[in-house]
Amino acid sequence: MFDINNILRENIKKLVPYSSARDEFQGEASVYLDANENAFGSPLDTNYNRYPDPLQYAVKLRLSEIKGVPARNIFLGNGSDEAIDILFRSFCNPGVDNVIIVPPTYGMYEVSANINDVALKRVPLTAEYQLDLDGIAEAIDKHTKMIFICSPNNPTGNSINRADVETLLANFKGLVVVDEAYINFSRQKTFIQELTEYANLVVLQTLSKAWGLAGLRVGMAFASEEIIEVMNKVKPPYNINEASQQLALEALQNVDQVNAWIKETLAQRDKLVLALRNFDFVLDIYPSDANFILVKTTDAKGIYNYLVSHGIIVRDRSKVTLCEGALRITIGTPQENETLIETLKTFK
């Protein structure tokens, strides 16, 4: 059985979080003289002189409606990267504990581990880009606190077999962190629906991809109430600024627009795959559940440099484990995708 107290750092158990002015008073008042703010306003059309809601309650209520999960099970971070870092700082003892990643995968898991002095165990995906469950089982020891799984996976684009993730959730006594940054583009259902089944599940999502709010830096973590309470205790007091909260809340009213963009992105992905298959230098295009495709080529570096010279930027992933010779290409607008194809026609 999972017990959060068995993996939580002792100093975090004892931590008394910073109590901000907005924690001590909640509600509406006519005169605020408690937080040493500038009472005269801001030198902008919109006033941002007051500190924001430290727990972003209005945004969480709207997300609760969209995601079908209580607001108390939602953490908001300055991008998903903040949530990842807080998980490390809350559950991993520096110089003692370790986490497992399954490369090729999102690079911030490794960066956060290095920043927090937490050992990293790598269990590469199989040739089919699926979990090596036997390898993961062998890698787990008494100091393994978390397993990170990106699904749909970055940079490969495929979804991870759901039953394999459930096997880990049922048998691992640490946290299983499922990063669903690209879930809006996937045929698979979100693991948020499994929060009541697995106390050790943390699901990461973001408003940066399908919602088109990468510049606002709003990431989400969904987990049990006790895990969310720990994350809220460790985070900085005002980690989501007022402008991001207001704009996110406004954007979250436009579900139909986002769904239309998702539909168009998937249609453009199919068209781009068909067009790329006509090039001799394209060896393979891997199945994708994301808004990008991984393309295996005969000359990734040459193609990358050629596209850069024409003002087109893709990601060269050819030095990443199991992605040799591959480029990661984001699905653009119809015009951008057409420009890409026409430019590639002149590559020799």
List the defining traits of the structure above.
348 residues, alpha/beta, seven-stranded mixed sheet, Aspartate Aminotransferase, domain 2, four-stranded antiparallel sheet
Radius of gyration: 22 Å
Main sheet summary: 7 strands, mixed
Order of helix and strand elements from N to C terminus = HHHEHEHEHEHEEEHHHEEHEEH
The helix content, as a percent range, equals 25-40%
Counting structural domains, the number is 2
Q: What count of helical segments does DSSP give? A: 12
Strand tally:
11
Protein name: Histidinol-phosphate aminotransferase
Cofactor: pyridoxal 5'-phosphate
GO molecular function: histidinol-phosphate transaminase activity; pyridoxal phosphate binding
GO biological process, one term: L-histidine biosynthetic process
What would you note in describing this structure?
The protein is an alpha/beta fold and 348 residues long. It folds into two domains: 4-26 and 54-253, Type I PLP-dependent aspartate aminotransferase-like (Major domain) (Aspartate Aminotransferase, domain 2), CATH 3.40.640; 256-344, Aspartate Aminotransferase, domain 1 (Alpha-Beta Complex). The protein has twelve helices and eleven strands. The chain has helices spanning 10-13, 21-24, 57-67, 80-91, 108-115, 133-139, 162-171, 225-234, 242-251, 255-276, 300-309, 334-344, and strands at 74-77, 98-101, 119-122, 144-150, 175-179, 201-206, 219-222, 282-285, 292-297, 315-316, 326-330. The strands form two sheets. A seven-stranded mixed beta sheet has the order 1-7-6-5-4-2-3, with helices on both faces. Strands 8-9-11-10 form a four-stranded antiparallel beta sheet. A hairpin with a 6-residue loop joins strand 8 and strand 9 (292-297). Helix 4 (80-91) packs across helix 5 (108-115). The longest helix is centred in the C-terminal third of the chain and has 22 residues, at 255-276. The N and C termini lie far apart (58 Å). The modification N6-(pyridoxal phosphate)lysine is found at residue 209. It holds the Pfam family Aminotran_1_2. This is Histidinol-phosphate aminotransferase.
